[in-house]
Amino acid sequence: MLFTLIFYVVVTAFCFWRVFTKAGHPGWACIVPIYNLYILTLIAGKEWWWFLLCFIPIVNLIAYVMICLGVATNFGKGAGFAIGLFFLGIIFYPILGFGSAVYGPASPAPAPAV
């Protein structure tokens, strides 16, 4: 069971690294807890406060679905792919990272407030 967990974490991190790199963000950001969710929000083209919505119970489900939709849209995929990212990320994130999908944001990601 421990081997399976380690394998899952390594594969997920590797796939997210590729997705982050394709989107023009540093790959190492995927292994930093909480920061990786913030960068994923930027990749989705959402405002920074969407990141905060992910910490509110029940609201986090809706916010993450919308983030997945933004990520899918910015990689040229549709709503069905976004649902796949939400429910079967272990399959759909490798498709984004290693497939032919190209990151082209529908709207530029907002600059983070300092």
The separation of the N and C termini measures 42 Å
Alpha-beta content class: mainly alpha
| CA-based gyration radius | 13 Å
Q: Give the strand tally.
A: 0
Structure, explained:
With 114 residues, this protein is mainly alpha-helical. The chain has one domain (2-98). It contains 6 helices and no strands. It has helices spanning 2-22, 35-43, 49-53, 59-74, 79-87, 89-98. Helix 5 (79-87) crosses helix 6. The longest helix is centred in the N-terminal third of the chain and has 21 residues, at 2-22. The protein is globular and about 40 Å long. The termini are far apart. The mean pLDDT is 91.
What features would you highlight for this structure?
0% strand; mainly alpha; 61% helix; 114 residues; globular
Chain-wise SSE layout:
Layout: H1 2-22, H2 35-43, H3 49-53, H4 59-74, H5 79-87, H6 89-98
Can you describe this structure in just a few lines?
With 114 residues, the protein is mainly alpha-helical. It contains 6 helices and no strands.
